[in-house]
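Amino Acid Chain and Its Fold in Token Form
===========================================
What this section holds: a protein sequence and its matching fold, both as plain text.
Structure line: whole-number tokens from a learned vocabulary of local backbone shapes, matched to residues.
Purpose: to set a sequence beside its fold so the mapping can be learned.
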Amino acid sequence: MVKCQYCTPEWLDESARIYRSHSSFQQKLKKLSENVCFRVKAEPAWGIDQDIIFGTFIEAGQLTKLAFFSDEEAKREANYILAATPQEWKKILRKVSKFLTEFMLGKIKLEKGSMVTILGLAPHAPTLVEALTQVDLQFPDEMSSDELARYKSYLKEFRKNLGV
């Protein structure tokens, strides 16, 4: 299993590669056609100095885009934008918590989209989480101080290069 750091291009690229190479994900999500972005709220202690947004665009189960977005791009291209702290996203991705539970508790906020229709997408959340966790995912709170410093620097660099 490939090791990737959370919220990095390597994580999204490897997750997209794995998704596309496993027909089981495509089959499970064949009824899904949505563009969803996820806002990871700033958490300086985790090296995330500004909110960062990544999105998953799926058309009839086919992954069309898994990438980082600027705030403007997300608002323009996504049907839904969901926001939470990195700690909340970690709980979801580690399968400690479920998306629907955290959403209903208000720990995940809907910034764009309809409350009614987002609830219709909730049954697909476990499959999406499974697709995003096919790598050995390392979160900033699991890094040494040296790793965290490198991570923070890398985050700034790739975000500047991508304009996100």
